[in-house]
Amino acid sequence: LRGGRAAREMPFGPDSLTRVIAVTSGKGGVGKSTVTANLAVALAQRGLSVGLVDADVHGFSIPGLLGLVGPDGLPPSPTRIDDLMLPPVAYDVKTISIGMFLRRSTDGPLGAVAWRGPMLHRTVQQFLTDVFFGDLDVLLLDMPPGTGDVAISVGQLLPHAEVLVVTTPQSAASDVAIRSALVARQTGQRVIGVVENMAAMTLPDGSTLDLFGAGGGAEVAERLSTPEEEVPLLASIPLSTALRADGDAGTPVVAASASDPAALAVTALAERI
Ligand code: ADP
After folding, report:
1. Where are the alpha helices (DSSP H) in the chain?
2. Is the pTM of this model over 0.90?
3. Average pLDDT score, the chain
4. Does residue 146 have a known ligand-binding role?
5. Whose alpha carbon is nearest atom 24 of ligand 1?
6. What domains can you pick out in the chain, each with its CATH number?
7. 3-state helix, strand, coil in the chain (%, to 5)
8. Nearest Cα residue to atom 6 of ligand 1
9. Which residues are listed for ATP binding in this entry (predicted)?
10. Ligand 1 binding pocket mutation candidate from 33, 34, 198 (most atoms within 8 A of CB)
11. Is residue 27 annotated as involved in ligand binding?
12. Is 38 a pocket residue for ligand 1 (Cβ < 6 Å)?
């Protein structure tokens, strides 16, 4: 990443033909990154040209989820051409993440990112302006959870972006999910729908296990709907061992276990947005 120079023009401004979709959640651990990575792959499987910006700078996980790990165990660095960067590609998704710029300190783990607002803003801005994605049909952004600096920066940089809210079926998660969507809406972004993740799974004996309760996604959708604009519940993705294991292995479930119920739900989501 470079600092100092005047910013290049934003290729994803209001005149661009690329749909920009920011995936947000009220809190961490609801599966936002897993859903975003799989949605990106499912959209690419539909034949769309897809980019993915890992804007969850402090908690980046997209390179691991897409198996973007080199022989040294690190995400590959983007190739530089002059002062543009070419994003690494996995499952036909062009991807950029801060993890691609961090290097292991001697034999320790990947460096942690402990940046404050202005640095975060510049990083997200550079991901959007200095990475050569080419012509994209869809650009997904994996947002950090909550309503922090990056959400506000993205709202300023991409006021025409659409927002997808990921939440769990637990009604206790609803308030924070709604708050994150309202911050995005305040910056002019349109909330296009809610994705409920970790919904009830069907067990081998045919019974269902709803570990996190039921109804949270529908509740968030209803409470975000206005008289002018209905916000639909676009998908309910069940708890899934395959989705979790494939995420850990860096082989997204929509590619590795396409008939799994969670994979089918994400594929259906990719058809609906
Ligand atoms: P977030 O981005 O919201 O912090 P992650 O995508 O990192 O959440 O997911 C948190 C954990 O939950 C990961 O270990 C992931 O594999 C797991 N997970 C996500 N969705 C599901 C699901 N539907 N079923 C089972 N495990 C899930």
Report:
1. 32-45, 62-65, 117-129, 149-157, 174-186, 216-224, 241-249, 253-256, 261-272
2. yes
3. 91
4. no
5. 239
6. 21-272 (3.40.50.300)
7. 35, 20, 45
8. 31
9. 26-33
10. 34
11. yes
12. no
